[in-house]
Task: structure prediction
Amino acid sequence: MLLFRMLTTHAHFEAALAAKASVAVYRNGRLLEPGAPLQLFNEHTVKIRGNYYFRDECQFESCQQVRPASSEASETG
Result:
């Protein structure tokens, strides 16, 4: 299952960085970066694939593969 999350707080970015989640970047509804792991971030910018994006100008969405718990998998399978 894929888990999508808008990254809006420092904790969201920390979690995406730790999980090496793929992050897409949008500005004004236009896709700028289709998705790659974060390289670094601070309160003003985010770096992905060597490109810097301003946090106050862009929206960031993480996508992470999540495996269901074994009890959930047996109930649905």
Q: What stands out?
A: The mean pLDDT is 89. Helices lie at 10-19, 70-76.
